[in-house]
Amino acid sequence: MRSFINTTTATLCVSLFAAMPASADPFLDEVVDFQSTIFYFEAGVPGVVVAAVKGDDAFVTGMGETRKGNGVTPTGDSTLRIGSITKAFTGQVLAQLVADGLVSFTTPAAELVDGELGKALADWPSVSLVQLATHSGGLPREVPRAKAEDPADPYATLTTEAFTSWFNDHQPLYTPGRNMLYSNFGFDILSAALSGAIGSPYAEYLDETILSPLNMNDTGFERSTTNAELAMYGHGFDGEPLPHIISGKMNTGSGGLTSTANDMVKWIKWHLNEKADEPETRLLDHAVYFQRDHFDQVQSMDESGRLDGAGLGWVAMYETDDHPFILQKAGGMQGELSYVALAPAHDVGVFISINEYNFSAALGMASFANDLVATLSGY
């Protein structure tokens, strides 16, 4: 990141940062602390949390406010929404089920979904699990639905009935596998199919197999009440704070998770540690399944960096002179925007979250994280 920050600003920022334990790597601390300061002042958002991992070391910092005007600086324990980064967790569950032999990537989703939704899917052209996991299943971004009556539960009308009705009344937007079009709908169908494969609720399986083993105790579809006073609040396009909301029961595959930066460090470390549990799952999860030129059209996939290949929820960016091979994913919900980028070959990962709908800041957030990954990887 080519930026300048004068001594006065650098001194001022000390009072705006949450006190965080230093890592064992002073280089990591210095680079992340300084670059995060620059990003925060340039972004102009109420609050920012940054977590960086390099090998066994991690550094987490927070700056600004969890809610505009409250004077509370976010920390690694502040709960926050990761939005569509949830899709990377869904992809990991798919990888684990494939590794365990419970499904294959080419299994049609209709074979796994029960009830009326399964019947509607069965009458549709076949869509495989890997097509759903790579946004290539012929589905729209969202399912049209009525506005919820309760503002605190905006996803109340995102129901199995709404999904079923759409399949009964529509054909694919394109032949499945032919194009790539970002689809929250597709990942919610994927989580429904995975739930059918395991015979239990998807959220329970995610907790039992990924979250609990990694001690991600503050991550889930319900916001953790631990350290509630540190919780991040999103802000709208007008800069006004937004209330916390219920995640919803049907968007478990696409975007319902809340977490903390400290929990995300645990998850990132699993991805970067070749000796950690479930190596087969990790190998499958980090693979690229389709090159960009496999598709006739690629739409709404390049906002955080150009997609070169499609992973399981991941956007793969191939190595260039400026950065290493990166797996990345962005997410946003209820005025909170988050981003994660991994360079597995260099044992480097970065997570960042801001608490305002500010698309200029969101683009800057992705550039900041990608540049930081490159710097920590030696580029």
Automatic annotation (TrEMBL):
Alphabetically list the UniProt keywords. Answer: Carboxypeptidase, Hydrolase, Protease, Signal
Under Gene Ontology molecular function, one entry of this record is:
carboxypeptidase activity
Q: Which SUPFAM superfamilies match?
A: beta-lactamase/transpeptidase-like
Secretion signal: which residues?
Answer: 1-24
Q: Which InterPro entries match?
A: AmpC-like (IPR050491), Beta-lactam-related (IPR001466), Beta-lactam/transpept-like (IPR012338)
Ranges for the Beta-lactamase-related domain? 42-356
Pfam entry (one): Beta-lactamase
Name-wise, this protein is: D-alanyl-D-alanine-carboxypeptidase/D-alanyl-D-alanine-endopeptidase
